[in-house]
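Protein modeling request. Please complete all fields; requests missing the sequence field cannot be processed.
Requester role: graduate student
Desired output: 3D structure, token encoding
Chains: 1
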Amino acid sequence: MSDPNQGYDVVILGSGSAGYACALRAAQLDLSVAIIEKDKLGGTCLHTGCIPTKALLHAGEVADSTREAAQFGVKAEFSGVDMPAVNKYKDGVVAKLYKGLQGMFKANKAITFINGNGKLTGRNTVDVDGKQITGRHIVLATGSYSKTLPGLDIDGSKVISSEHALKLDKLPSSAIILGGGVIGVEFASAWKSLGVDVTIVEALPRLVPAEDADSSKMLERAFRKRGIKFKTGKPFETVKTSETGVALTIAGGETVEGELLLVAVGRGASTSGLGFEEQGITVDRGFIPTNEHLQTNVPGIYAIGDIVPGVQLAHRGFGHGIFVAEHIAGLNPVPIDEAGIPRVTYTEPEVASVGLNEDKAREKYGDDAVKTYNYNLAGNGKSNILKTQGFVKLVSVKDGPVVGVHMVGSRMGEQIGEGQLIYNWEAFPSDVAQLIHMHPTQNEALGEAHLALAGKPLHAHA
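Delivered output (462 residues):
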């Protein structure tokens, strides 16, 4: 440390995906680290977000596989869902990962974990329940919370958040989900698989509105086929609860009823009451704007993860945390291209994407400069074996690189790794077309799409 009176090299407020990644990388770079957490190490993703929701989705996938076993010539009988047992499985996955993460931190002598309520009280000081923790650099990583809307009070019983939804010991026979973004459609998919009659209400014109329009259409088609009801372009107006359930009135005066209402209208940044604005940090609608190096407007203070405007994803948090640790250590890391962060919605079918959607590409480059190709999974052998439908859609600049990869289909989220390499390395369709993809795999669909876009289709029409 350059100045022992300043305490640690790095003080991190929050130990979610962004915070703990920053701590681990900073320790690797021989920086002394204090990380402050009011709850559990691992944050939302591990305890009430990514991991438990994906475990719930997998349980639903197993239920569907059992129901549909006969079409594969397998005799199986579906007799119901034991939610306490599902929760035991889900919680077991979380507990195992939590134990492993705790072990990593306990073994790392360069990191001091401080459990308590932290508040920024100076440019290099965080107060933790009366104790002053100082550092040459402060990193804000305080995460996010489930939002609601004016006039819509979450009571934890009839009107619930995603955190409540993950603790249900008994699923309702019917449910309304307010919000057709990632969280809303993932719960709709899981609950439908587990036997719940689901209706999604979304104010915007389509489900997963941040995704490419073709991806939204494909997901909506699949949801109709699965019996998941949805009403788009219908803002919420009023809600009434009773002993038997919830009645939600939406635009046009229509009423939707269910045993409970899951509010999934997005997540807000957890920045209120933590002293940020008092120390001169700019806060815009709860979020903290940063420069490309994730520095706030106050020298020596960084912000990372969900509190920074942009997609709220755990792996974005990992990337932010690693970047800031390396920036503090003087390694001059390459700034993160937000569009190059892969995105997956873990519904059935999955929606995966990286880069620009078609509309944004045309807005950026002009209609005449953009070329697209849509490869239908009907031509993919492995997808036929799995009995899934969907596509791989490429968005490219004419005589230029691929600027967007969009995929829909069972397990297609596993293919986005190559998609992000294609986008981030600015590959031309011809660069990918010369690569040989394993047959039969769903990964092969990416190769087929690039062959077609490069003007030499194999199992597709140009």
